[in-house]
TrEMBL record:
UniProt-recorded name of the protein: Uncharacterized protein
Organism: Batillaria attramentaria
InterPro entries per the UniProt record, alphabetical: DUF4735
Superkingdom of the organism of origin: Eukaryota
């Protein structure tokens, strides 16, 4: 999957925002919504859909879906996140290999933004918190840099990373923070829902 569908230098090029509308490249749309990707290529498909929607390109996304006779946008989201959940479960069952921890947190962050509660599990949260450098507050990894390795044409097993002077890893810390934000959101919403249910039950008995 070509990375330039997400970025070109510092500017995204998968869409162009004019004064009237967005223009989505047919080439990028078909590649960024194709089935069969895994790992970072799969997570980038969800990221692509999120960025395009936030950029106000929903009408053009709908047009592309109709043009290529694809299922609805929510079906694409469900499909991609279901595949990402299977990968996350596999990573957890393999005892969270160090080289996949970054991906594991990215999966929780991206699909968590869509509200998929299956990504929010207490053992997973404990693991994510355990990977934090408690002195620096960020996320590091002694095994970095990881040699780039691509297996076949359907996934990228390494995300570009940058280490700061204090050893903090930019991407790893960013996806960790994003995942933790989604956990906080989920726990807050769950607590509020439980309290509301208890109040409803209390007042219904009056």
């Amino acid at each position: 999957m070509p990375a330039n569908c997400l970025s070109c230098g510092e500017r995204p090029i998968f869409w162009k925002k004019t004064s009237e509308h967005c223009v989505i490249s047919d080439k990028c749309w078909t590649r960024m919504t194709k089935l069969g990707y895994s790992q970072y290529s799969l997570s980038h498909e969800i990221f692509y859909l999120q960025l395009a929607e936030l950029a106000g390109c929903l009408p053009q996304m709908t047009w592309q879906i109709l043009t290529y006779d694809q299922p609805g946008l929510h079906v694409l989201q469900d499909t991609f996140c279901a595949n990402m959940l299977r990968e996350a479960i596999h990573i957890a069952r393999a005892d969270y290999p160090a080289r996949h921890q970054d991906l594991f947190m990215e999966q929780a962050a991206l699909c968590g933004m869509y509200g998929y509660a299956e990504f929010f599990q207490y053992p997973w949260l404990d693991k994510i918190l355990s990977w934090q450098d408690h002195q620096r507050g960020c996320y590091t990894w002694a095994g970095w840099p990881l040699e780039k390795h691509v297996t076949g044409s359907h996934h990228i097993s390494k995300r570009e990373e940058r280490r700061l002077a204090d050893g903090c890893l930019c991407h790893r810390t960013t996806v960790a923070a994003a995942a933790l934000v989604q956990y906080v959101r989920y726990l807050t919403e769950t607590y509020v829902a439980q309290q509301t249910q208890q109040l409803d039950h209390l007042f219904s008995g009056l």
